[in-house]
Amino acid sequence: MPIFAANLTMMFNEWSFLDRFDAAADAGFSAVEYLFPYEAPPEAIAERLNRNNLRQALFNLPPGDWAAGERGVAAVSGRFDDLKSDVERALDYAAATGVKRLHLMAGLAEPSDMEAASCYRHSVAYIAARLGEDGIDLLIEPINGRNMPGYFLNDFGAAERLITDLGLPNLKLQFDVYHRQILHGDVVMGLRRLLPMTGHIQVASVPSRNEPDGEELNYPYLFEEIDRLGYVGFVGCEYIPRGQTLDGLDWFRPFARR
Ligand SMILES: O=C(O)[C@@H](O)C(=O)CO
Ligand SMILES: [Mg+2]
């Protein structure tokens, strides 16, 4: 049975950020993820995780200036020093939360830009090595250009090639089923092929990015397939509820912690 992590950036927005941990646990989740923890003190997050017996599945390294439109800086030239301090900041939160995987956003750049490609490769190799010292995996995630126009890593093949070329044991793929379906389709064959290098899965319906309960994808079949493939990691519920979060959890009831 997949272990689902509530995505607290998208779900449970009826509550303040810290109260979302309690709400997710009350709804039967045993794990959580979110994009960024950095506006709350690490000790406050740790306290919510412990109080609710929740596991921290994932969060992202700092993404640069999000409000100004940055979506990571790993492929952006001249930002390597920022990245080096960002990773130390993320590691403070990792130590407090016990998270074992962090997602590095690539940033906005043309995928054909050779300088961006070289920066990205260098950044990924550096951060994977640094996280490896603390026993943490580094994840990279292809993101579709409809949701994030101009995003550098917009192809599962490119992610697969980089992971294979670098050959670092703690560098893994974040397989977001929603992005995969929009970018390439062929979700099940993609999972079968890429599962050995996958460190985290995320789900949402396509095209709405709402609850994983219909539309283009047959999620009951996909959840069974994820089990059949022997995946033992987390499945992040990175979806925008159609209405109130609790009203949209019918799909989750068979998996809820009791
Ligand atoms: O799919 C996404 O958008 C996220 O997983 C992410 O980390 C960047 O927004
Ligand atoms: Mg995602």
From TrEMBL:
UniProt-listed Enzyme Commission number(s): 5.3.1.22
Limits of the Xylose isomerase-like TIM barrel domain: 21-254
Molecular function as annotated in GO: hydroxypyruvate isomerase activity
Pfam family, one: AP_endonuc_2
Active site location: 141, 238
Keyword Isomerase: yes
Family: Belongs to the hyi family.
Record bears the keyword Lyase: no
Record's protein name: Hydroxypyruvate isomerase protein
Organism of this sequence: Rhizobium etli 8C-3
Coiled coil: none
